[in-house]
């Protein structure tokens, strides 16, 4: 991995505490500053003075709650000292602390191997490590608490997942760079500034030292510090660059809200400033009802001359944001949008066909892709398999069939999982089976959007049909990487 493992010669690890990974604070200054004084990192509380309390487990509260979960130890001395400690207290997988990957061979390992081993160990107790990380962060830096949602259950492993993603992308510097740049741009909407990174880094290292003790040691620590610094720097640089041309977020007023079924709404918004994006991408969205709770939604159209944006939202049982959007939102309500993200884009240089699998509201970005092909005015075969549980759930079939009638190169096949196909003349069964039935697809690229399970089985099916991984796209890079694709 070039981006993360490159050594800048700084002796990052073992420097004894504050300010090891203080990244440069603007895009012009890409070089990592020497270890030393922290860059406007807020001063810590006296260690151990604020014992965190358990976090609420159920519904989020509209107002901030300042209750981190576990009771972390003071960060002072950790993680720098962790490698030298004899036994860090309370890890889920206790082992000889400070030994690092054992044996002389460990000396030969590069940063990516050291970090990979550390992550593999950390994954076994990822939940505890995550809880510890956030508890420590909010105790040591209480003012950061209000940047995060009131209740964080279910969402809070994303930092670790991002690191896992970064580690898995070690060998693809370009993809890693793109991923981290997107993450950095996306962090502007949270109010993240460069000075926050050292605070997060310290708590992260403390969590890793504690929950991956078998692989922790001075060299692993130094590798982590280098990697974290490089990751942070990429995110900070991308945010600084983005600041020059885009707002941190967009306010977007709902101009129409159409219930297509009792669970699915088609929502159109008008952003307060031009919103540049590409067909196939998605955005992050915050509602006024759940502050700081962001969810992703795909654009259901290619960019339009009127600048309006449309989303298809399905309310999931007890889902905070989706239920609010479907049941509560009305024209005139103002949502907040983050920057566009996602790489499920049409390659307009290629001649290949598009084999599209859209499950449920996953049909939304597929429709955007079709409009994108239409706007280029170059006919290429597009085969759409539109899956849903029942006929009733094929809420956008009419639109899709209209598109099919207008373009001879487009074919739309509805597929319903439950019961026999009926009025919609849908195929019965699961999406992958239908795709197999009509294959093989040697001259097609795969595009998939829908629930994660559908994407997983869909990707396996397309690979099984001989479409190589690099020609299969879907809307979540994390998901792709976690699958080991
Ligand atoms: C890249 C991307 C694009 C997306 N695009 C869209 C889109 O265009 N339209 C859309 O409706 N959604 C889309 N989603 C899903 C969306 O981001 C939310 O996850 C979804 O709306 C649920 O959020 P919530 O806050 O309502 O539920 P949460 O409060 O997050 O979840 C509540 C409960 O529901 C469960 N749950 C979460 N999602 C589902 C689900 N799909 N089915 C059943 N149970 C679930 C959770 O495990 C939890 O137990 C997309 C997701 C990603 C990653
Ligand atoms: C290397 C450093 C970091 C990485 C890899 C990282 C990664 C992530 C990821 C993957 C998410 C999930 C949502 C998204 O994609 O935007 C997230 C959310 C978030 N991050 Fe970071 N982050 C880092 C540093 C920071 C810093 C320094 C702050 C500032 C305090 C911060 C604050 C937040 C907040 C407030 C959220 C939203 C939380 C939520 O929705 O639950 N992050 N981060």
- Count of β-strands: 12
At the first level of CATH, what is the class of the largest domain? Mainly Alpha
Characterize the main sheet. Answer: 6 strands, antiparallel
Write down the secondary-structure element order. Answer: HHHHHHHEEEEEHEEHEHEEHEHEH
CATH A-level architecture of the largest domain: Orthogonal Bundle
The figure for the number of domains is 3
Helix and strand topology:
Layout: H1 2-5, H2 111-123, H3 126-140, H4 158-168, H5 173-187, H6 196-211, H7 218-243, E1 250-259, E2 264-271, E3 282-286, E4 294-298, E5 309-314, H8 320-328, E6 334-337, E7 353-359, H9 363-376, E8 382-388, H10 397-406, E9 410-416, E10 427-428, H11 431-438, E11 444-449, H12 452-464, E12 472-474, H13 477-482
Parallel strand pairs: 7-8, 7-11, 8-9, 9-10, 11-12
Antiparallel strand pairs: 1-2, 1-6, 2-5, 3-4, 3-6
Bound molecules: flavin-adenine dinucleotide and protoporphyrin IX containing FE.
Residues 282, 295-298, 311-314, 316-323, 361, 364, 451, 475-476 line the site of flavin-adenine dinucleotide.
Question: Keywords for this structure?
Answer:
12 strands, 6-stranded antiparallel beta sheet, binds protoporphyrin IX containing FE, disordered N terminus, Globin-like, Rossmann fold, alpha/beta, 3 domains, disordered C terminus, 14% strand, 6-stranded parallel beta sheet, 13 helices, single chain, Elongation Factor Tu (Ef-tu), domain 3, binds flavin-adenine dinucleotide, 485 residues
